[in-house]
Amino acid sequence: MLKERSQLFMSMFVGADLAVIALAWALSYVLRFVVPVIPVTKGTPPVVNYLTLLPVIFAIWGLVFRAGGLYDPMRGTAGSSERRRVVRAASLAMLIFTAVSFVFFEKAYSLSRLMLLYFYVLGTGGVIVERAALREILRTARRRGFNLRHVLIVGDGDLARAVGDGMVRHRELGLKVEGFLTDEPTRVGAMVGAVRVCGLWDEVADVVARGGIDQVVLALPFESMPRLDGLIARLDSAAVDIKVVPDVERFVSLKSGIEEFEGLPVISLRATPLVGWNRVAKRAMDIVLGGAALIVAAPLMALIALLVKVTSRGPVLFSQERMGLDGRVFRVWKFRTMQDDAETATGPVWAVAEDPRRTWIGGLLRRTSLDELPQLLNVLMGEMSLVGPRPERPVFIDEFRRHVPRYMLRHMVRAGITGWAQVNGWRGNTCIEQRIQYDLYYIENWSLLLDLKILALTLVRGFVHKNAY
Description:
By secondary structure, the chain is an alpha/beta fold. It contains 16 helices and 12 strands. The protein has 3 domains: 2-143, no CATH class; 149-247, Rossmann fold, CATH 3.40.50; 276-460, no CATH class.
């Protein structure tokens, strides 16, 4: 029954996709030749020439969509994932069709290249909209109790409860939990939420055999994973889907996901979005905006340099070791705001309010954060970014990493002149644990728009802060 239902829905999507593709092909002909946006100069070809190509289009799009997994069950798949699949499959199908048409049909039909462009845009966009509409119809039906899959969850701990709660919250998935299985006999008959524990793990095959179960979800605690093989073996002869929810949440930090290596699933417990083109885009923004900021700030920086020089002895610029991307140490540049021998007697210490080591102009620079302007040079040299976690001194990091969980994860991206923690008030000598939470949020949710938002907030809220001293 389940297989027949899956075939029915697959046929529904195939028919809808091909109908949209046919409509896009016809509409593209109309836009190019009947009501042309760009005037036709070589005459209007007979519509029959293009209609006879529809079987070729159906064959190519159908095969490529099938190979791209677009007709596999997608219950629970994110809409963005399906859209990406559609774009990839449609692009490949268009490439194949273009090659085939110009090799075999160009002399006979002289296909319009502009019409092919119309067709690609309309066909791809149309399929995305059509599938979104069908998915919404299916979600509505499932919320009303139609097209349900009946689920048995093996496990009754926190992980299993979280899985069951998720299925209850997302009724649009059409997953109805029929029961939980436990490994503790005293728990049989107990309730997990609104669902009963109906048996022991070892009875999984018997429970399935009684009927009414379409899917078995194995949600075992990490320490019970050695029993997974035996449980799956018990289901060898059962005609049900089997899914495993690994108990790895305790190990997850930053972005996680499932990858594939040589056909093997690999669970990524830690990753950063700043790879590939994202990294290139962020670096490009740093160079463009950082260079522009340096040009605009140059007169002010020259005035500050003069004031520092004439109001105290010592160099204009001050450099200090900080830790950045991948734990590499670099020298950060600032305008000197303290006496030249400020740490001779004390060693490395945090600055404090009304710090006696500050120079007169240094106090003003620190309160307004203008002492940080030379770090634009660090940005252009690639040692820092405009936006990112603020870099700390290695001597302090040695202490933080021993007492603050996940502290070193902040070094998976370049340090920044400003950051998410700073625009939310966590700067200077404030709670390091809170700052880490904001830094990790930034890394997990990075985007160019978030960077621009942080830069805007830095300008709007100003450079002055009560903890800048």
